[in-house]
Design brief:
With 485 residues, the protein is of the alpha/beta class. The protein has a 5-stranded mixed sheet with strand order 3-4-5-6-7. It has a two-stranded antiparallel sheet with strand order 1-2. β3 and β4 form a beta hairpin. α5 runs antiparallel to α10. The two termini are 51 Å apart.
Length: 485
């Protein structure tokens, strides 16, 4: 990256990035604290994590304006580790998770995201939109009409304020107005401070207090590997969403490496693991964030809130942040894809529905993406396995003209088209419009020729392309005697 581009990513949208960073820092807090509650750890661990990841990714990340923090998708992975072994093992697992992420980035695992079908990505986005919305519903439990009124007011401000001016993000205006009404009016609703103890302390350097032996590695290794897979999956898919929202291209492998370093640093400074957060990233972009400065401001302002404005931060009503996240969930959901669903191929529609169902049911992104990708692959194989064989029979010969991809899933269909008990002298197998893709295909052709010869037929194979002919030569020493070029 040249100096001009680097400068543009930092200062090209100064005012927008500063305001967006402030808004996204507010949006990070409730999910991070909720993450910690689910995981059974101190809220400060999640906030420290969010600070380090957001600030460091401003410098190390490959996708400007994408917010990374202690994401809820990783909370379910670490529950068992914390419950059975405690937070010190979580810190050790976080450091190892970061190492895995960095190594995977070195090996360019970010390029594999192109193998994730668009239908899976649509399902991923829609599922996260639903999860974001559902996660807000719990904030209404035990609350009265005041909570509903403040949330409604916040939503109205977010949607209507841009009609007056876009100079200030409407999300920031909503947070400020709703907070002011709640504090000045003495409205009794839950606040950020009610979610857990948030102390005005800086993150201390800390080496995990665990035995440095193989037993510790045995305990943390499965968790670290799972965290790395879940974290990178959500990060890479969120990167795709951000690319579309900003009409720019992120460096996915740099993002993986940067996230790995950031997680290792987080672990050594009393934090836990984290990754990209699609909801907060969309808040950042919708609030005007485009550059690296928005990431830096988000993390820096989070520490300002914790360390200098702690007394004010704990009074911010959850209603203000719920309003923001509800509008984010609505904006995140792919409504156009929903309209196109009846017109989509049935396989693609099934994949979208299954990904959404699995992610929402398990609250685990990795399960949905894995199932969706596998299901898409199966559907592709079924469609690709359609082989067409036309037959031209004469008195002394039969010509089989084969069309399509010949591989493990289509070999049985291919062989079913051949009559191995014919009464002719010559068999011509024309592969001019076919290709042998794997060992199964080569074996099928070899067996077909052998069965025809056992039936006293003289067999000629014609039209094999160079790659297919080379495969037959390597596996079965075909020297061209049975092939017509």
């Amino acid at each position: 990256m040249n100096v001009t581009q680097e400068k543009a990513e930092w200062l090209g949208n100064f005012r927008g990035d500063v305001l967006a960073g402030i808004v996204s820092s507010f949006a990070v807090i409730p999910e991070v604290v909720g993450f910690c509650i689910v995981a059974g750890i101190s809220p400060m661990m999640g906030l420290y994590t969010s600070f380090w990841l957001t600030v460091l990714m401003a410098f190390l990340g490959g996708r400007p304006a994408m917010i990374s923090a202690a994401a809820g998708s990783m909370a379910l992975v670490i529950v068992g580790l914390v419950k059975n072994h405690g937070p010190e093992y979580l810190i050790a697992a976080t450091i190892l998770c970061g190492l895995f992420m960095f190594v995977l980035g070195i090996f360019k695992v970010g390029n594999l995201v192109k193998l994730i079908p668009n239908s899976v990505q649509i399902g991923f986005v829609d599922a996260l939109a639903i999860l974001i919305f559902m996660s807000q519903l719990g904030n209404f439990e035990g609350e009265g009409w005041q909570m509903v009124a403040l949330v409604a007011l916040g939503i109205v401000i977010i949607y209507l304020f841009p009609r007056l001016t876009t100079a200030i993000p409407s999300t920031l205006v909503a947070v400020v107005v709703v907070t002011a009404i709640a504090i000045l009016g003495g409205v009794q609703v839950r606040t950020i401070g009610d979610m857990g103890a948030i102390t005005a302390t800086l993150p201390p350097f800390h080496i995990p207090s665990v035995p440095f032996n193989m037993e510790t590695l045995r305990i943390i290794l499965p968790y670290s590997a799972s965290l790395a897979i879940v974290g990178l999956s959500e990060t890479l898919l969120t990167c795709n969403v951000m690319d579309e929202l900003t009409d720019t291209q992120g460096d996915r492998n740099r993002e993986c490496r940067g996230l790995g370093i950031a997680n290792m640093v987080s672990g050594f400074f009393s934090g836990t693991c984290g990754c990209a957060m699609i909801g907060q990233a969309i808040v950042n972009v919708q609030s005007g964030g485009r550059g690296r400065l928005s990431n830096f401001v988000s993390g820096a302002f989070l520490m300002v809130l914790i360390f200098l404005l702690n007394g004010l931060m704990v009074q911010i009503p959850l209603a203000a942040l719920v309003a923001v996240m509800i509008t984010v969930s609505i904006a995140t959901f792919d409504w156009q894809a929903l309209k196109r669903l009846p017109q989509m191929p049935r396989g693609d529609a099934l994949v979208i529905v299954m990904v959404v169902a699995v992610v929402v049911a398990t609250n685990n992104l990795a399960y949905g993406v894995l199932l969706g990708t596998m299901l898409t692959a199966i559907i592709f194989v079924i469609h690709s396995a359609r082989v067409h064989v036309s037959t031209l029979e004469g008195q002394k010969r039969i010509v089989y003209r084969v069309e399509g991809a010949i591989f493990f899933a289509s070999t049985e269909t291919l062989l079913q088209h051949f009559d191995f008990h014919n009464q002719v002298d010559y068999i011509i197998l024309d592969f001019s419009d076919a290709h042998l893709w794997d060992e199964s295909a080569a074996t099928a052709l070899h067996k077909a020729v052998a069965r025809f010869e056992n039936n006293s037929n003289r067999v000629y194979v014609k039209g094999l392309d160079p790659d297919s002919a080379g495969l037959m030569a390597r596996l079965y020493d075909w020297d061209g005697k049975t092939m017509v070029h």
